[in-house]
């Protein structure tokens, strides 16, 4: 038996998993079948607890330790610590164990705190009170205690605690209206129908008297192909672990330094045995090796290699990981605290769901955005209607009566159609008034959003399964309803069957033009189609309205079709779709409506800024091309003088691959031809139904400044994002949307941002960051993203630099101590260097550094280009920092060495020992790396001064205490009075000043020369700020840079 089979059996019988069963049998109210029926086998069902946490009280330590030691750096230091415990090494195990313990503890506290917050959220849901019908009464219990088979009593505006089957409602027709905003992000109201056999049971006693079983499929994540009302747990999409470009660079640098470490250990091991090959340089007579030890060359060589690895292991900055995590965690609060990203209308601030991607906000190259609710307000306003080609403006309609005039000639075509008959007008407006699912509702809360409040008082408002319907009914302010053929995304239309007071039966249909026109047999189709196309070009959302009279025989046939489909036990959805298709035909076209979805505030300015920053903006929408293109023009994504390339399937005779390849040619474009041509930067409008030409499609789009993809399904949006991610440039992508149909692309992109719009909170919950409005994306990327990348790039390079400065003198020291593995620094210095002496200044720098004022970053988006393509973590920059660290280490070591060459170094003629030499090198080291960070700091506050100079003072005070007191818990006192003796020497003070200056001077000279000869735009602005001419001078420098760039472009 293999392990998969064993796992399956355990899941079946121990855990309660049910994937191996096709269906489940549920006994309503837990009433077992009466005696004499088939054998009763009680199925095992899982409980109703929601668990989103990772740990429990019992498994936190082992599980968290396992996850932490999966990191290469942590595992490496664990091995080093164990080696120090097992073999005789030159340093104490504390030097590796204490930093490792610090890193593991801080990380565990952070992850434990985050999981504790998840536990709190789970408990808030699991302990939510639920009303259950038991023994004819309504009792109250916690949500987590619900069992499969309980009859739940849900009141209006309450949330569903689990997957439910609707048995009955308080309405006579057995219907209820449900919002699934917490599942799919849709805040619109969807209609659900009670089971026909149980909808008459309305009281608790009647429901409790039901003896029935339910045969149904196992739980599934599909929200709409089942009679269930919620699928919370199964519909949740787990997030894949996203890694930033900075983290990938860190891992690459870590591998390089690991190779350097191994190389150092190998070189010293070889040189040690080469040194000891001379008998006169072997062990002294009092420590001479035995003959057995002399024969164990390989074992001794391996232990020496491990000892050198331990000695040099500090070149791997284990504390860098915990510093980076703290920087990301604490830095994320600056986004949430930003008052400029607070929306007063919603009362919401920006939210950070994932702090691991802060620096990725500064590396975005492609922005994929939804249209409705993201670029637009998703607030529909009725604009006009067209009846038989005759256009009416909103104020001409009052309470469903035609009272006004038509559109002015400037808004109509040259040929104005004759006024339609009063019968057609009345039918059209009756269709609008009847063909919808709008209801009047008082104040309610939908997924945390309050509706129906006006000046603090509750008022009536409309609810519907479509925001367009609400806009139409509000724009126009009696019949017996017989049937409702609900809307679905496949048919893209809805219908109602009503009976007039005269006894006539009508079928009114409303839907998208593409779903109505093919089913129309009469009416002024050409005039209405022209008006619909014109409205689409203007960016309006259109709906077509049609009707059909049903005679008694036709109505009976329709009732038979619908009844048979609704009562079908198998393929019910398919049979309903077939019935709808048979009913909605032979229609008479009445007219069309147009509603407007206004552009969000400053959406155009935001897109323009993103373009100036070098980002390419793609709009992925499900709308038709004309409507989406109009929105793109309004938002300045498209310009009026922009060359438009349309890639669609509407080509005569189809498009071959060779013809499609012609799109990337550089021949002048021929207007109005079937095969489009692209000459340099342009805008590509792409239909999702195009053929599968991925390579050519990418080649075309890379030459476009903006791309619009229309008629996109949610999965197609994710595929487009994945396609760009997988291209040869591997650009950093960002996806932003507000609805559940945007979740797929939000999860697929490197960075996902949710808009707190009107379509629920699913996009917000699944995103890495959430903002109230689209306009806040500008500051999030151009300011926060810019700062985060600059800060963490400096943090990473600085950590590697200061550890090279720290450990390379130890490597050089081995050449002067016979490769005896003698440490240069004291154990306390080895332990506290990365934890205390040099950690706080770089952490604070990575939190508050502002190399350029944020107002300048917002005014000049082109500064974003200076940090693009991970420019500050390129291999050339990494090599420069490493070489600089090696140079500083050589200056520190040999400077102190030559100064020590004089044996009368102290004022009293006393010679310095090896610990004094190491302390001098370490003192120069701490001051050098701290001053280096101070020179790189542009934004000084009292906190910077306190931390930087406070760290140096702490080092001096610690050294005085460490060497000035005989500590009883130490078995050695080698550092006693060493630091005081060194400071008592005048030449020691002079050497510290000279060596620190000599170490820092080349880097300062290099920066001065580079800024004078090859300054970047950022450095020009920094120079202007330093000169003290304020904002005017900075603006002048920026304008000069822009004019120079424009001039170079014109010459080119």
TrEMBL record:
It is found in: Endomembrane system; Membrane. The active site is at 370 (4-aspartylphosphate intermediate). Mg(2+) binds at residues 370, 372, 738, 742. Keywords: ATP-binding, Magnesium, Membrane, Metal-binding, Nucleotide-binding, Translocase, Transmembrane, Transmembrane helix. GO terms for cellular component: endoplasmic reticulum; plasma membrane; recycling endosome. GO terms for biological process: phospholipid translocation. GO terms for molecular function: ATP binding; ATP hydrolysis activity; ATPase-coupled intramembrane lipid transporter activity; magnesium ion binding. Belongs to the cation transport ATPase (P-type) (TC 3.A.3) family. Type IV subfamily. NCBIfam families: ATPase-Plipid (TIGR01652), ATPase_P-type (TIGR01494). This is Phospholipid-transporting ATPase. The lineage of its organism: Eukaryota, Metazoa, Chordata, Craniata, Vertebrata. The gene is atp11a.
């Amino acid at each position: 038996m293999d392990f998969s089979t064993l796992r399956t059996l355990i899941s079946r019988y121990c855990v309660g998993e049910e994937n191996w069963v096709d269906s489940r049998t549920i006994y309503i109210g837990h009433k077992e079948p009466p005696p004499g029926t088939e054998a009763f086998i009680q199925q095992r069902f899982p409980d109703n607890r929601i668990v989103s946490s990772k740990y429990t009280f019992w498994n936190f330590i082992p599980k968290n330790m396992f996850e932490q030691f999966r990191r290469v750096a942590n595992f490496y230091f664990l091995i080093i610590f164990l080696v120090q415990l097992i073999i005789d090494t030159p340093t104490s195990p504390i030097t590796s164990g204490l930093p490792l313990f610090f890193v593991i503890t801080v990380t565990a506290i952070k992850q434990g705190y985050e999981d504790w917050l998840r536990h709190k959220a789970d408990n808030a849901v699991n302990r939510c009170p639920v009303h259950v019908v038991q023994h004819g009464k309504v009792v109250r219990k916690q949500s987590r205690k619900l069992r499969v088979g309980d009859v739940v009593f849900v009141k209006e505006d309450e949330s569903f605690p689990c997957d439910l089957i609707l048995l009955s409602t308080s309405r006579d027709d057995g219907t209820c209206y449900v919002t699934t905003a917490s599942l799919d992000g849709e805040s619109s109201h969807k209609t659900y129908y009670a089971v026909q056999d149980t909808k008459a049971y309305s009281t608790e006693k009647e429901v409790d008297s039901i003896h029935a079983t339910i045969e149904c499929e196992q739980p599934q994540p599909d929200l709409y192909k089942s009679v269930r009302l919620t699928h919370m747990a199964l519909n949740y999409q787990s997030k894949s672990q996203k890694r930033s470009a900075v983290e990938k660079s860190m891992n690459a640098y870590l591998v390089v330094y690991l190779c350097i470490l191994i190389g150092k250990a190998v070189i010293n091991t070889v040189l040690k045995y080469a040194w000891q090959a001379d008998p006169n340089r072997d062990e002294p007579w009092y420590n001479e090796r035995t003959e057995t030890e002399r024969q164990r060359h390989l074992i001794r060589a391996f232990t020496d290699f491990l000892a050198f690895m331990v000695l040099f292991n500090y070149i791997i900055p284990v504390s860098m990981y915990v510093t980076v995590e703290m920087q990301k965690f604490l830095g994320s609060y600056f986004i949430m605290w930003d008052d400029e990203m607070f929306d007063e209308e919603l009362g919401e601030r920006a939210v950070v769901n994932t702090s691991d991607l802060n620096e990725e906000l500064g590396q975005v190259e492609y922005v994929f955005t939804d249209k409705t609710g993201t670029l637009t307000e998703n607030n529909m306003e009725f604009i006009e209607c067209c009846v038989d080609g005759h256009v009416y403006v909103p104020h001409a309609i009052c309470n469903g009566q035609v009272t006004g005039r038509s559109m002015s000639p400037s808004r109509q075509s040259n040929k104005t159609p004759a006024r339609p008959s009063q019968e057609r007008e009345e039918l059209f407006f009756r269709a609008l008034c009847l063909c919808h699912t709008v209801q009047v509702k008082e104040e309610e809360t939908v997924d945390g959003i309050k509706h129906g409040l006006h000046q603090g008082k509750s008022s009536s408002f409309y609810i519907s399964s479509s925001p367009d319907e609400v806009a139409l009914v509000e724009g126009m302010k009696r019949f017996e309803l017989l049937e409702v053929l609900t809307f679905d995304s496949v048919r893209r239309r809805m219908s109602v069957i009503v009976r007039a007071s005269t006894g006539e039966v009508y079928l009114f249909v409303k839907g998208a033009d593409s779903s109505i026109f093919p089913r129309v047999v009469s009416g002024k189709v050409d005039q209405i189609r022209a008006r619909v196309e014109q409205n689409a070009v203007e960016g309006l959302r259109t709906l077509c309205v049609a009707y059909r009279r049903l005679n008694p025989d036709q109505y009976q046939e329709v009732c038979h079709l619908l009844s048979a489909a609704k009562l079908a036990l198998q393929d019910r959805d398919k049979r309903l779709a077939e019935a709808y298709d048979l009913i909605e035909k032979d229609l008479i076209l009445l007219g069309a409506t147009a509603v407007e979805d206004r552009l969000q505030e400053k959406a155009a300015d935001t897109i323009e800024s993103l373009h100036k920053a070098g980002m390419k903006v793609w709009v992925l929408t499900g709308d038709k091309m004309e409507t989406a293109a109009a929105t793109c023009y309004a938002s300045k994504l498209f310009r009026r003088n922009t060359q438009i390339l349309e890639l669609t399937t509407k080509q005569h005779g189809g498009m071959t691959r060779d013809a499609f390849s012609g799109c990337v040619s550089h021949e002048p474009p021929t207007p109005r031809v079937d095969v489009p041509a692209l000459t340099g930067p342009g805008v590509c409008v792409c239909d999702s139904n195009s053929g599968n030409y991925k390579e050519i499609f990418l080649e075309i789009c890379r030459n476009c400044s903006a791309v619009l993809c229309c008629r996109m399904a949610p999965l197609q949006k994710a595929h487009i994002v994945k396609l760009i991610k997988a291209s040869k440039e591997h650009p950093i992508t960002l996806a932003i949307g507000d609805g559940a149909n945007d979740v797929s692309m939000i999860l697929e992109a490197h960075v996902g941002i949710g808009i707190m719009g009107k379509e629920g909170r699913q996009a917000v919950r699944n995103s890495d960051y959430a903002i109230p409005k689209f306009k806040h994306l500008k500051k999030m990327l151009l300011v926060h993203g810019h700062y985060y990348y600059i800060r963490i790039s400096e943090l990473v390079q600085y950590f590697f630099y200061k550890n090279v400065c720290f450990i390379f003198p130890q490597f050089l020291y081995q050449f002067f101590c016979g490769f005896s593995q003698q440490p240069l620094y004291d154990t306390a210095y080895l332990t506290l260097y990365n934890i205390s002496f040099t950690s706080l200044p770089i952490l604070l720098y990575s939190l508050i550094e502002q190399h350029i004022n944020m107002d300048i970053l917002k005014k000049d988006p082109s500064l974003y280009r200076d940090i693009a393509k991970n420019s500050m973590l390129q291999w050339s920059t990494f090599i420069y920092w490493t070489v600089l660290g090696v140079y500083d280490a050589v200056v520190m070591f040999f400077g102190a060495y030559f100064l020590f060459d004089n044996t009368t170094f102290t004022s009293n003629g006393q010679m310095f020992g090896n610990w004094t030499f190491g302390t001098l090198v370490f003192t120069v080291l701490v001051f050098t790396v701290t001053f280096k960070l101070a020179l790189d700091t542009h934004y000084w506050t009292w906190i910077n001064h306190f931390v930087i100079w406070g760290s140096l003072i702490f080092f001096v005070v610690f050294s005085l205490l460490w060497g000035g007191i005989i500590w009883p818990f130490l078995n050695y006192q080698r550092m006693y009075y060493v630091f005081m003796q060194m400071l008592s020497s005048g030449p020691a003070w002079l050497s510290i000043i000279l060596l620190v200056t000599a170490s820092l001077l080349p880097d300062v000279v290099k920066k001065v020369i580079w800024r004078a000869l090859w300054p970047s735009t950022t450095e020009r602005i920094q120079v202007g700020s330093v000169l003290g001419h304020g904002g005017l001078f900075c603006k002048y420098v920026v304008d000069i840079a822009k004019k120079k760039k424009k001039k170079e472009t014109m010459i080119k």
